[in-house]
Design goal:
The protein has 208 residues and is an alpha/beta fold. It has a single domain, classed as 3-Layer(aba) Sandwich (Rossmann fold). Helices cover 26% and strands 31% of the residues. It has 6 helices and 14 strands. The longest helix has 12 residues.
């Protein structure tokens, strides 16, 4: 099983790779090489920082964006986006202007606006997962569990069935999106201890 974490200059790659290696009990490639990405069995795109910066990082490496598209849409193999890697799946990101995303899951990345003004932005820390869409094998047993978030923007999906889980931050905030062979988490599985490892293990066992 070839597991690849895409390295496009965003931080937090090593912790994601280490968490995947722990559950897979096998090496994980951290690379920007388009051929290695295209040959993967499971692809993970982490991300932290601004939407536009992460998008530019992917597009700046010759052939990388095309390899990600080939892997996910043409070969239809399992893709996991984490944090901004999940947000890039959207139609648009509305952070510091309007930026076109991958367009895989219709919707926009918008500022979090909790109804309680006492809540701080970014949302940072542990919060509870609640199912909001159809059951998904990667998410089995995660209902009611706490995971680690750090973000100021959230995925506003255009189609309700693409929003698989939410968390409450004085209003529902998208925690997981997905369709077909792709899934994305707003939270960080690699920072979510046992629950995060469970999700990663179930992702690596997913045969969509």
């Amino acid at each position: 099983m070839k597991i690849v974490v895409v390295d496009y200059g965003s931080g937090n790659l090593r912790s994601a790779a280490k968490a995947l290696e722990r559950v897979a009990q096998s090496p994980v490639a951290v690379t920007a090489d388009p051929e290695t990405v295209a040959r993967a069995d499971y692809l993970v795109l982490p991300g932290q920082g601004a939407f536009a910066d992460c998008l530019a990082g992917v597009q700046a490496i010759d052939g990388l964006y095309e390899a990600i598209i080939d892997f996910t849409l043409t070969q239809a193999k399992p893709y996991l986006g984490i944090c901004v890697g999940m947000q890039l799946m959207a139609t648009r990101g509305l952070e510091h202007g309007v930026h076109e995303g991958f367009g895989w899951i219709p919707g926009d990345i918008v500022p979090i606006q909790p109804s309680d003004p006492r809540l701080k932005i970014p949302q940072m820390g542990w919060n509870t997962l609640t199912e909001s869409g159809p059951p998904h094998p990667v998410l089995a047993g995660l209902e009611g569990e706490d995971v680690y978030f750090v973000h100021s923007y959230a995925f506003e999906t255009a189609q309700p069935d693409h929003q698989l889980m939410v968390t409450d931050y004085a209003g529902d905030v998208t925690a997981v999106v997905g369709r077909d062979t792709m899934i994305g988490t707003q939270f960080h599985p690699e920072k979510s201890q046992t629950v995060g490892l469970k999700l990663l293990s179930q992702f690596l066992g997913w045969k969509p």
